Amino acid sequence: MKRVLTFLFLGLLSLSVVFVSCKKDEETDDNTTPVVTNKMVFNGTTYALSNAYVFYYGKSNETPVSYNLDLVLSSSGFTYNEDSMDYVGTGDAIYFELFSNDSTKFTNGTYPMDTINAGFPFTFDYAEVLIGFNASTGAGSYEDLVSGSLVVATSGSNYVFTFTGKSKTGKDVTLSYTGGITKTIDDSKSKGKTRTLAH
Which domain holds residue 167? Predict the structure, then answer.
């Protein structure tokens, strides 16, 4: 009888350990901070990104031939409206004026900043960061970038963009984004090009 009671006690003790352990695991899961994978880090602050827009501006007149494909990665509150052909909302974004050797896509490779505006393939000649920017009023802040390299890779049907650079005032800028293109806009026949988002 004593042996049976001992086994019952040990069984109840082990069950209580399991329940406590599960409860601790659940509490840990609930308190876990979500990991932001698609993000821009500007001057030490992280900004989540959820949209990727590409604007095609056509073939360059340079040799070797390149194709101007602008890339805009933005937060959920800052989106492009095709009816008004402009951005709407308020949010954060990073913009690159890129030159690819392919008119339909960003070819995998490293795109360093070209400060002489030569428009060669695998370069970008302008970039800017927008923080809390209101597309209607222009309120918020923006800053031009003066150096850095954008690395383009692919993973299945997704692009993988990574960037490290500096702003005009010396602030560090990094970027990591994996995903598809939200929308591609063909502006190759437009009469004029809006070079930047904020200016």
Answer: 39-186
